[in-house]
UniProtKB/TrEMBL annotation:
Repressor involved in choline regulation of the bet genes. Repressor involved in the biosynthesis of the osmoprotectant glycine betaine. It represses transcription of the choline transporter BetT and the genes of BetAB involved in the synthesis of glycine betaine. It comes from the Bacteria. NCBIfam families: betaine_BetI (TIGR03384), PRK00767.1 (NF001978). This is HTH-type transcriptional regulator BetI. Residues 31-50 bind DNA. It comes from Nitratireductor mangrovi. Residues 8-68 form the HTH tetR-type domain. One of its GO terms (molecular function) is DNA-binding transcription factor activity.
């Protein structure tokens, strides 16, 4: 007889296991059996909760987006100025929840998968719009709109690029240096004023 309340726990365990399996493999080329093994459940139970592997992978991507959104709301709640808002978004992009080897590998694998999967592409577009909106909430009051949009795109590109570069290195990710690099770019753009592109 199934224990009441176990479904959310098992679904979360399977999502965490999917992130771990993708991180270990460096791609989405993992099986439901591998994921179930890491989660400590049977493959049949994994299929029961998620159906096909693609359903589990999409749920995993939605989970990462949800964590990013929750972290963003929490960070922005404490931001007092537009500049604080920018720093908050940069910081959560490299938080312990996001900027760890398995999660980095999962994000990169999802970007690759988005080239062939419309569902993954839609999810990544949600992330990109949310990131842009959050950055614009800080940049918009500090500079002319079209310039703020270009700076927001530059910040987003740096964040994505630092994830790619992190995937090429060994050892623990260095969030502090990533944050410092992006913050330096923002400071440069703010200091340049209207003279900058």
């Amino acid at each position: 007889m199934p224990r009441i309340g176990m479904e959310p726990v098992r679904r979360k365990a399977l999502i965490d296991a999917a992130i771990a399996a993708i991180g270990a493999r460096g791609s989405l080329d993992v099986t439901m059996s591998e994921i179930a093994g890491i989660a400590g459940v049977s493959p049949a139970l994994a299929h029961h909760y998620f159906g096909a592997k693609d359903d589990l992978l999409q749920a995993t991507m939605r989970h990462l987006l949800s964590e990013f959104g929750r972290d963003g709301r929490d960070a922005l709640a404490g931001a007092k100025t537009p500049r604080d808002r920018i720093s908050a978004i940069i910081a959560i992009s490299f938080s312990q929840t996001q900027f760890q080897p398995e999660t980095i590998a999962a994000w990169l694998a999802f970007y690759v998968e988005a080239q062939r999967s419309p569902a993954m592409r839609r999810l990544l577009k949600v992330y990109a719009r949310r990131l842009n909106s959050n950055l614009m909430s800080g940049l918009g009051p500090l500079m002319e709109r079209s310039r703020a949009e270009r700076v927001a795109e530059g910040v987003a590109a740096m964040i994505d690029g630092l994830y790619i570069r992190r995937a090429l290195k060994e050892g623990a990710p260095n969030a502090a240096s990533a944050i410092a690099l992006v913050e330096n770019y923002v400071e440069t753009m703010l200091a340049a004023g209207d003279a900058a592109p």
